[in-house]
Specification:
12% strand; alpha+beta; 5-stranded mixed beta sheet
Length: 241
């Protein structure tokens, strides 16, 4: 091998190693069934890695105590023995999976029967369209259409920050659902519920939730779009306390 070819070979090996590392990292995220809050340190004081590294698994809290306020969207008997709180992002595909695959059984067996109440909180971590969608759902709540709008958002996902939840689309959803569009549009344009969205995220952080979906079943945390069988075991255990 010539001396001129050696530097080129080194560069090619470095590029190949980086590509393999990046692909492995993406696979790990997909296997976890969650979307994790970005927490990498940046700037002059950040420690710079010398090679690509896999993301650490989200820290899972062992016990939570989620505060529920009067402005939080609630399904079911407000005085039910058990409270189930979901923290989610409307752009998160795993949240949509929980919404369509697991939640209906929880609602049918526990919320509709009065054993539990279900509360939704925002953990909008995937960008501006997540924050806009969270605001939009709370604007719909002003007109008693929160859950209809919430369901519409999850059924309308089209990729992260690709325009699917741009303001004009969110306003179109409101019109489709028969909301007063003048009131809704004014609410959304003013980002009226930014403080509540921020407070939800702070509540998630306080309880150690770093990814979506994160669900508090009473004091027991459940991370990811887990199957109904797992939730049933935990819910029954909480109700038995």
């Amino acid at each position: 091998m010539s001396e001129k070819a050696t530097p080129l070979l080194v560069v090619l090996l470095v590029v190949a190693a980086f590509a393999i590392g990046s692909m492995w990292t993406k696979i790990q995220y997909l296997q976890k069934g969650t979307v994790q809050v970005a927490g990498a340190q940046t700037g002059a004081g950040a420690q710079q890695p010398t090679a690509p590294t896999a993301p650490s698994a989200p820290t899972v809290p062992t016990k939570v105590n989620v505060a529920v306020g009067p402005n939080d969207p609630v399904k079911g008997n407000p005085n039910a023995k058990l409270t189930i709180v979901e923290f989610a992002d409307y752009q998160c595909p795993y949240c949509a999976r929980f919404q369509s695959g697991t939640l209906p059984s929880i609602l049918k067996d526990y919320v509709d029967t009065g054993k539990a109440r279900f509360v939704f909180k925002n953990l909008a971590i995937l960008g501006k369209e997540s924050t806009d969608a969270a605001n939009a759902a709370l604007c719909a709540k002003e007109q008693n259409k929160f859950w209809e709008y919430h369901d519409k958002l999850f059924s309308s996902q089209s990729g992260e920050n690709q325009g699917g939840f741009a303001p004009d689309k969110l306003k179109g959803f409101a019109a489709d659902l028969g909301l007063n569009t003048a009131q809704f549009n004014d609410c959304l344009d003013k980002q009226k519920y930014n403080n509540q969205v921020t407070a939800d995220q702070a509540e998630a952080s306080k309880n150690g939730f770093q990814s979506t979906p994160s669900i508090a079943v009473g004091t027991t945390p459940v991370i990811g779009a887990q199957p109904y069988s797992q939730f049933k075991t935990i819910i029954d255990g909480e109700l038995a306390k």
